Amino acid sequence: MVKKTRYWKEYWWIISFIKPYKGTMFLLISCGVIISLTAMLIPRSIQFFIDRILPAQDLTLFLYMLLLLLAVLSVMILATGGKNLLQRIVREKAAKDLQHTAFSHLRKLGFSYFEQNSTGQTLSLLNTDVQDVQRIYRDYFPQIVLQSITCVIAFFIIASMNLVLSLIIIPCFLVYYIAGPWVERQAFLYLRSFNEHRVDVEKDIYETMSSMQEARAYRLEAWIRKRFIERLGHMNKDWLKSIIFAHTRGSIRRLTIYLAILILFVYGSHLVRVGVLSLGEFIAYYFYFFIVMNALTHLVTATTEQHTLMFQAKRLYDFCHLKPDVVESSNPKDLRFIKGSITVQHIHFSYPTYPNALKGVSFQILPGEHVALVGESGCGKTTLLKLLGRFYDMSKGQIFIDAIPIQELSLSSLRSNIGYVFQETYLFGTTIRENIAFGHPEASEEDIVEAAKLAFAHEFIMELPKGYDTLVGERGYKLSGGQKQRISIARMFIKNPAIVLLDEATSALDNISEAHVQQALEKLTQGRTTITIAHRLSTVQNCDKIIVMDKGRVVEEGTYDQLLQRKEGLYRLVHGQTVSVEEEVRA
């Protein structure tokens, strides 16, 4: 049998989102109590009519009873309207808070989370899982609370009417609770398997859309379709099995109800015949019995279906309790202006799957200095840039900006003063104007145009059909690589950072595009502290200093001419690159 206490921690965490609205929740429960109490008066009125009014043919008493019922129904209608309104307020606000919490936590997680979890999995978590778990607020929890109130009140009434008759029908419920748990377990297990397969299916859909070009280039459409159909088949198979067991559970529940009705009719008729119950009490008892059974049926169904959601609730709970890799200081320093000096002292860093990525790296950069990081792939150059922006925190050592440890700076202060230009530029699927303004959302139209001019982007933008209002498409697919890079550089001019980090910003461009981008980069880096990671060593000849890295260490640093004269690290890199170019030309 599945232990229902297994997910108590996760369940109370989900329910905790209602806590800010406990006043509204109290009013909601009060309305539920009023509705239940007024509903209980109707069977009593029928009993009174049969036992008192009908034998005496008392018309006056009958009219009074009708007026009382009208008053009761009016109160019930008002309470029901209040309950529906309050229930919607609580569930929608709690659901909104849950979604906001999940999304906000995603923003806090470090790069390690995104490198270890696919985009499809994260989208499934934030879309499907959040929406399903929100049903606890929208459907199940309010229903469980209100139906529980109805059950307690109605059972108390029938027990007070005839305790023996009430006790006799209890074993009928035990039949369900003996056979029900096994059936519920099977339904739950298949539904959990269905949810797991659904995540895979949604991941496949996302990856299929993202890899359309590669799939067609490698003629893998049939393989992708076959894999998708197989996973879809597994998902549907588990769904059908969960439905079968769910209906079996319902059949067992109905059997117990019908058995209880049969016992109630036989024994209740006997009690009427011997005078223990009046005819009115017997009929009222029947009404109360169906009220109890209806409430119990809804209660059991809501509890069971809610339980099936707890697997997704656990995934959401685990996600929202992941500790971010980078945590801001409790009392961070907020610097409006950074001069741009950088000091790296004996830093060590390891990835979960790649230990010793950096081993005791140290160097110093003066304000306004242009420094290049060079070395073979995997030597730790990009890792250094990630540590500078605190996308990760180093294992040992320290990084200082303007003589302040970066852990003491607020993340907003640190990152607002650092500008990144990556090899692959991400553009939002909106207009060019909004993509440039992403560097500074409050920028004026004049600032946006000036930034585009400085990035040598204004000319090609004005040649587009709608100029700055041109939609660039998803990830900027309507623009060329060089155009996208110049848009990203325009963002940096808008942002106006003190430190610029260039991660192979021109390595994926053709010669003409590279020339345009290089012009824009030269303007961008004037007067700013700049660190460049360059694949083509010819582009870093004019840097103030070159730092050569190898296997996570700094092996030498100096100017381009100084390092070539030493004939060590940089010399070997330049020589190897020259040989590669010559071999390519001969080929």
From TrEMBL:
Every ABC transporter domain range: 342-576
Taxonomy, superkingdom: Bacteria
ABC transmembrane type-1 domain span: 26-305
ATP-binding recorded as keyword: yes
PANTHER family: ATP-BINDING CASSETTE SUB-FAMILY B (PTHR24221), ATP-BINDING CASSETTE SUB-FAMILY B MEMBER 6 (PTHR24221:SF654)
Transmembrane residue ranges: 21-42, 62-81, 140-158, 255-276, 282-302
Lineage of source species: Bacteria, Bacillati, Bacillota, Bacilli, Bacillales
Keyword Cytoplasm tagged: no
Pfam families per UniProt: ABC_membrane, ABC_tran
Organism: Caldalkalibacillus horti
EC id: 3.6.3.-
PROSITE patterns xrefs: ABC_TM1F, ABC_TRANSPORTER_1, ABC_TRANSPORTER_2
Listed name of the protein: ATP-binding cassette subfamily B protein/subfamily B ATP-binding cassette protein MsbA
Topology versus the membrane: Multi-pass membrane protein
